[in-house]
Specification:
Length: 87
């Protein structure tokens, strides 16, 4: 793993091998750009979009959502709300 001390040793390149919680599968994570200094404020601006379920999103672009998309969305939304509450 390559790290940059000036960036507080954030990994710049790394290979991770995981399957079922064990290190076995291949994945590459590579930083494509890094800048030293204060972060740009726009990166921390509040989001302006509205969260909608997959059925609403896909129908807005005249497509059909798969049922498993809606199931996963509802599961993940309930998990987020159990941690952070409804937003």
């Amino acid at each position: 793993m390559w790290v940059a001390p000036v960036l507080h040793c954030y990994p710049l390149d790394g290979h991770h091998f995981y399957t079922d919680g064990k290190e076995t599968a291949f994945k590459v994570k590579t930083v494509t750009k890094a800048m030293v200094g204060d972060p740009v404020g726009v990166n921390f601006d509040p989001l302006t979009g509205t969260e909608v379920p997959p059925s609403v999103f896909w129908s807005a672009i005249e497509r059909t959502a798969f049922p498993q998309n809606e199931t996963a969305y509802n599961r993940d939304k309930a998990a987020r709300e159990s941690i952070w509450g409804s937003r």
